[in-house]
Amino acid sequence: MTVSVTPSVEWVSQCYNHGETHEHVSLYLVRDGDDVILVDSGSFYHREAITSAVDDATDGCGPDAIILSHSDYPHAGNVSPLGGDTEDVELVASSGSPEQQGLPDARKCKIGGRLDVTGRTFSFIDPPLADRSHTTWIFDHGDGVLFTADGFGNYHEPGQCRNRSSEFDGMISTEQIYEYHRDNLVWLRYVAPEKVERTLDRIFAEFDVNAIAPVHGNPIDGDDIDVYRDRLYDAMRRIADEYEVD
Amino acid sequence: MNREIVPGINWIYEAGPDRTAKFELAERQPDWYEPGREAYIPQCAYLVEGDDETLLFDTLSPASTDQILETVDDLVGDRGLDYLVVSHPDVPHAGNTHAILEEYPDATLVAPAYGNDHELYHLDDARKVADGDSIDLGGRVVEFHEATFLDAPVSIWMTERETETLFPVDWMGFPHLDEEALLFVDELDGEFDVSRLVEFHGRVLFWYQYVDVAKTTAEIDTLVETFDPEIIAPAHGLVIRENAPEYMELMKDVTRAIDEQGRIGTLG
Ligand SMILES: [Zn+2]
Ligand SMILES: [Zn+2]
Question: What are the residue boundaries of the Metallo-beta-lactamase domain, all occurrences included (chain B) (predicted)?
Fold first, then answer.
C-alpha cells in the first residue's frame, strides 16, 4: 500500500483528481524501531483510504506520533481518526497559538529548533515555500528526508500516481512543477526568485538531504534534487515574469 | 467584543494570546512597543448589515466559537444571517464556518472562486465569488476583489461600496498593546509607528522577505488608485478610519524595511 522513499520512510500516496491532471494530497510514515510516526495526516476526502493504509502498515496498532507541518485542512484532516486526539498518540505542531489553529492539545515544536519524537530526531525549518503563514518544514535526521509540506510539489498524470521522481521518464517535468507552484503558491508572482534560491541554498547546505518528501507531489530522490531545483528555479522565474503590474 | 465602525458595519474582535514573550519584545524593544505592556495580534471578523440582508465576513478562530455565535446573535437578532463569507479557508479565519451554518442553516456560504481544491475545504457547494462580483444587502453593497497579498490560493478581498471600506484580510495587519483593543487607529496615543506593520508582515506574510521591491511598490500604487478607501478593516489589526490611503502608502516602507532586514521571525 505504501511506497518506500528511504529505508525507514514510506509514502502514503493519495491523489486529488483535477481532471486532466492529478494533485497529491499525501502523508508519510516514518518507522523508528517499533514506533511509527506520521508526518501530516492527509485530507478528510481520503479518510477511509488513509486510515486503512495506516492500519495495514502498523498491523492495526496505529501511529505512536503525528507531526503536522501546519493546521491546513488537507494536511490535518485526519488527526482524530488516526488517534491524534488520544493519550496514546503524541501530536506535534509548530503553531504559536495552537488554540486558534484548532490544535489545543498539540505539543509545540519551535521552528528553527529540533525535537525528539519517540526517540527520533527532527529539525523544524522556516519554509521559503508555503501556502500558509504557520507552516514548518520537517527534517528527519534518521534517513535525511526533508518533508516540505506545500513546497516542492508537482501535478502529475494518471499513471504517475505512485512514482518516485526517478521513475518518471526524464524526471518530473518543468511544466508539472511550474503549474503546481503557479496555482498554489500564487504569491510567487511578487517574488525575486534569486532571493528564494538563496534561502534554499542555505537549507540544503545545512541539512544533508537524501530525499524530499512533498505533500502535493511525488517524492524526489537524492540524485534528482539538483535537477528538480533547476526546474523549480525556471518555474519561479516564469511565474514572476508572467505577472506584470499595470 | 465588538464595536460599530459606521452604522451597519460591526467589528468583531478576538485578542488571541499575549505575544510579548514569543516576540521577545522586552529584549528587542521595537519602536512600537512599550515596556511592561502586553501585545496582541488580533483576529477580526466583520458584520455588514443592509436594509434587507446581513453578511458576516470571516468567523474568528476555533478558540472563540461561543463568542462569535453570541456576538452575531446579539447583532442580527431576529433578522438572522443571510451570508457567511469565508475570505480564505485558514483555520483562524474560517474555523467556525460549520458552527455558524448550523446556527443559521438558511445562510448562503460564500467562498473565493480562486484556487482549485474547494472540495478539500468543504467549499464545493458554496457560492463562488470573483473579482467584480457583488452582493446588494440594501443600502450596503459588498464587492469582491482578487486578493493581492495573500497566503492561500483560495482567497478573496472585499469592499463595501457606500462606506468605501476595504477588507484586505491578511494584508495591513499589525500588533497593538493591551489597552488598545478595539480602538480606531486615530484614537491611539501618539503617532502610528510603521514598525507595527513591519512586525506583522515580517512574521505572518513569510514571503515578504523575497519580494521584488519595485514590483510590489507598483502594485501598492495600483491598489491605492483602485480602492482609495475611506476605511480599512484588516483581519489582524485595528480599524483605520482616517487618511486610509496614507497607511497603504506606508506599506511601501514596510516592503523596503523587510527587504533590508529580512524576516523578523515566525508567528509562533
Ligand atoms: Zn497543502
Ligand atoms: Zn494521481
Answer: 42-236
Tell me the CATH number at B190: 3.60.15.10
Residue B94, domain member (yes or no): yes
Q: Count chain A–chain B contacts defined by CB atoms under 8 A.
A: 135
pLDDT digits (tens, 9 = 90+) for B114-166: 998 898 888 989 999 999 999 999 999 999 999 998 888 899 999 999 999 99
Which-ligand-closest: CA of A162?
2
Cα of A158 vs centre of ligand 2, distance in Å, is: 5
Residue of A nearest to B60 (CA): A100
CATH class, range A3-166+209-221: alpha beta
Percent of chain B scoring above 70 in pLDDT: 100
User: pTM of the entire structure?
Assistant: 0.93
The interface predicted TM-score of the complex, written ipTM, equals 0.91
On whether residue B267 sits in a domain, the answer given is: no
CA of A46 to the centre of ligand 2 (A): 13
Which residue among B120, B216, B266 places its CB closest to the CB of A25? Answer: B120
Boundaries of domain holding B113 = 2-260
Cβ neighbour number for residue B246 with a 10 Å cutoff: 11
Q: Which of B116, B170, B205 is nearest residue A18 as measured by Cβ atoms?
A: B116
Q: Could B43 and A23 be called an inter-chain contact, meaning their C-beta atoms sit closer than 8 Å? A: no
Within chain A, which residues score under 50 in pLDDT?
Answer: none
Q: Grid coordinates representing A229?
A: 531545483
Number of domains forming the structure of chain B: 1
Q: Cβ distance A17 to A9 under 8 Å?
A: no
